Amino acid sequence: MTATLETPEPVEVAVPDRPRTFLRGKGLVGLVLVGLVIFAGLLGPLLVSWDPYEQIPGANLLGPTAGHPLGTDDLNRDILARLLTGIRVDVLIAFTAVPIGALVGCAVGALATVNNVLDVAVQRLFDVLLAFPQLILAIGLAAVIGPGTTSVVIVIVCVEIPVFGRLLRAAVLRVREAQFVTASEVIGAGKAHVLRHHVLPNSLEPILVQLALSLSVAVFIEGAMSVLGIGVSPPHPSIGSVLTTSLRYLDLNPLFAIGPLAVTAVLVLGFQLIAQAANAARGA
Amino acid sequence: MSTTDVLTVEGLRISFGAVQAVRGIDFTVGEGEILALVGESGSGKSVTARAVLGLLPGKASVSGSARLGDQELVGADEEGLRQVRGRQVAMVFQEPATALNPVHTVGWQIAAVLRAHQPLSKAQALKEAVRLLDLVGIPDPGTRVGYYPHQLSGGQKQRVVIALALANSPRLIIADEPTTALDVTVQAEILDLLRDLRDRLGTAILLITHNMGVVADLADRVAVMHQGTLVEQAPVEDLFARPTRAYTRELLAAVPRLGHRAPAAVPAAELALELNQVVVRYKDFVAVDGVDLRVGQGEVVGLVGESGSGKSTLGKVAAGLLRPSSGTATVLGGDPATARRHIGFVFQDPGGSLNPRMSIEDCVGEPLRVHKVARGADYRARVAALLESVRLPAAYAGRRPRELSGGQRQRVGIARALALGPSLLIADEPTSALDVSVQATVLELLTGLQRELGFACLFISHDLAVVDSLAHRVSVLHRGRVVEEGPHHEVLRTPAADYTRRLVAAVPVPDPVEQRVRREGQVAPVG
């Protein structure tokens, strides 16, 4: 070992720049799509002068006109106004139910990793929840608690809990084997310290991706429940309920269905693109 | 050596996007010659070998020329390359476990390679496979031909990989770190096999390695690579005796050698670590079988052994991470788990042992925070002092681990281990993931800090030369038992136990002349 080797290491190490995922490509497109829809929902009352509940005399099942760009429905209401208000309801449902489901799921999933018996119990419970197809679960729950906005939220929460629970459990089990966790244990750190500083921060990446994915699922579930007649109850508008009404009059006014379909498609596509971009950003 | 060249590489350049991995190199491999391509990680040696076989990913751009006999390989089409691969040039990989397909028998795999290039029936191919297995020294090849890879040991798997490479009598074998994943006694066998094959079959070998001992043992000529350029090319004796370039000299000087350090001992007053008849069982498997080990205050004890000898398990017992099935572990007169404040632990993988989401400051200062020793300005000052003690600039405090090189990360690991001023430092293979020159500086740093701070140290390693360079006493572990124990210069230079003798004899000396004398002096190969 000689003195000539005092500084053989390069002082600077090439660090790959974090890809600016949400400023280009899929991420940007996704953000723009979702942003457009939410923006339209928020500014709805300013864009359209009609009241979504108002029954306009003599305007039954009109086609697109200058006054009613998407026409009117069977109860003489302006479809565009109802659709824009429906976006608010949908976004509210999705952004309430998915985070609640994620929080509960993550808490249960993380707790399950502490104890083996608890883990087995929780896993079997998740198995039961996952065994039900989403819509069967929705019908069953609606039969018990009745249709309405609340049951849509409850169904989405129930669907998301096992998804997030499984995901966090797997991530925690993986990170727990990492050497920096052992390193922390050697120092004498307690379980809580290890969990809070090492395990959880390194387990959250997949959760963020799943959040975006689950938001798109929530929009889809709301629509499906409305079509089944167990979703948001009339006369309140939602994307799903506007779509359901339109399906009955497809022969009279095909353009009726285009509005809600386009909004649903754009929202789901937007959330999926965001999820894909987030997944790419974590290098998976 | 014959004058005809099997492989001629001229002006080879390889770049990945803007990054130039290889910047115009020239070399030749003659018939029946073993050329060693040496260099540290990132020097471009593996990329060069892969470029010759056209195995680089699509985003790599290759220019220059690599000729096999008269055939140009750079820019050759897929069909042309397919004819060359396996038939004229074959490759031996680093990790034999992953180079073999686990769901097929070794005979099936060799037969498949044979039938890809030769019109043989299945029975003929299988017969040829038995012959090849016999050639690479697998005992009872007639039975083993029906074995699956998991039924063979690591050394036998590497022999099978070599048999695969030999299947179509190639003119050139490219061996990419063929012994790095193997234990030192197995490494010696594989090196003997490669030399023997060259002598018997006249196959040229392009050997890629970072291990100077392997180079001295096997190579005829050496080409030293550094940052994508060829620094020096010379016959092996000349290179080791008279390196002309500064980089080669530094590289050779950084290689730790056995028996080059004066005997050293510390009067052991009190014991820092005491293991008494420790037994560790994993279900039916006994990993550690009745081990006694003592580390005095201020003493460095080296624990050496091959993979599976139980040395890392002992490290975990000493750190209180694992309870022995029977026997006792005592640190500073108490239980290891309660003495954690006084134990520092340095891990093998410097990347994996640092939380990627924490700054360097938080990584180093974690012990201080956990034990609530310091906070605020005092905390930052102590972390800065720790970083300085491992010779890292204080400006690195805000960086993330991924922004540091391997050696720098290991310094961070050492700083963290020293944060609470431990009385006992346990280092589990702290340098085996590092390049040789980086390893030298980390060892130097550890030795300096140990002298300065006077902590006791349990140094676990498979590398005898590394242990010899800093330990006062050495314990040799074999299959969970201590086979020999004593002062470092006695155990590693005049070993008494049979196993230690074999272990020491198997380590290739980074000196071709001395290595040849040793090789010829051995009556039977190690095994």
UniProtKB/TrEMBL annotation, chain A:
UniProt-listed Pfam families: BPD_transp_1
Transmembrane segments: 28-48, 91-113, 207-232, 252-275
Biological process terms in GO annotation: transmembrane transport
Family matches, as PROSITE patterns: ABC_TM1
Topological type in the membrane: Multi-pass membrane protein
Domain ABC transmembrane type-1 residues, every copy: 87-275
Protein known as: Peptide/nickel transport system permease protein
Protein source organism: Actinokineospora terrae
Phylogenetic lineage: Bacteria, Bacillati, Actinomycetota, Actinomycetes, Pseudonocardiales
Automatic annotation (TrEMBL), chain B:
Protein name per its UniProtKB record: Peptide/nickel transport system ATP-binding protein
Residues in the signal sequence: none
Residue ranges annotated for the ABC transporter domain, each copy included: 1-252, 273-504
Swiss-Prot/TrEMBL GO biological process terms: peptide transport
An example Gene Ontology molecular-function term: ATP binding
Keyword annotations: ATP-binding, Cell membrane, Membrane, Nucleotide-binding, Transport
GO cellular component: plasma membrane
Subcellular location: Cell membrane
UniProt similarity note: Belongs to the ABC transporter superfamily.
Membrane topology: Peripheral membrane protein
Organism (species): Actinokineospora terrae
Superkingdom: Bacteria
